[in-house]
Amino acid sequence: MNTSYLIAHVQKVIDLNSEEKHYFTSLLKPQQFKKKTFVLRSGDICKSQTFVLGGCLKVFYADKDGLEHLVKFALEGWWAFDIESFLLGKPAFYDIQAVEDTMTMQLNKENYDKLLVRVPKFEKYYRTMLQDSYIMLQHRLTQNLYLDAEEKYRRFTEKYPGLETRVAQKDIASYLGITPEFLSMLRRKRIPTQVYPDHSKK
């Protein structure tokens, strides 16, 4: 299995020797998810952390009316899992679903615990990852509270360049907290000549 991408991601935070790399990769499980396949369902226990090697996942929750509220897209180099469910064994609040064919590496809870005991420096890596996630969540909350739809859309295109050609318009609208119709209006206003594929019909 190709673990070099994940190793490089980890080594942005901590240095690993050959033995530590070998041990870490021995704990991983490659897993491919076809488009629209669920990685995690709300109410289930999140048993693994999922690292995206290629493709895209969406993390969302559905309200009582079945309306999806998309929290984040997990692209190449991103982790996706329900942190509370994974760490505490509680039912997951979020659904995680592949929005295109996606290749991942998974680390289950038992192996995660083994890793932290055997290679304690991974504590720093996960602490950094959680800090980054918290900062990202704080930015999301601030933007949702204080920015208008046009500015949120502009920042979305900067954060996720090229993603609009890969995912359904309804998912982008859900992430921005607007209707697909209003998103279409924003697109026409911003780039009148650009045509985006509608992946929701595939």
Briefly, what is this?
Helices cover 43% and strands 20% of the residues. It has 202 residues and is α+β, with helices and mostly antiparallel strands. 26% of the residues are buried.
Task: Give me some keywords for this one.
202 residues, alpha+beta, Jelly Rolls, four-stranded antiparallel beta sheet, 8 helices, 8 strands, 43% helix, 20% strand, cAMP-binding protein, cNMP-bd_dom_sf
Give the strand content. 15-25%
Helix/strand-derived class?
alpha+beta
Runs in which pLDDT lies below 50 for 5 or more consecutive residues are: 192-196
Q: Could you tell me how far the N terminus lies from the C terminus, measured between alpha carbons in angstroms?
A: 30 Å
Protein name: cAMP-binding protein
InterPro entries: cNMP-bd_dom, cNMP-bd_dom_sf, RmlC-like_jellyroll
Domain Cyclic nucleotide-binding: 12-116
Pfam families: cNMP_binding
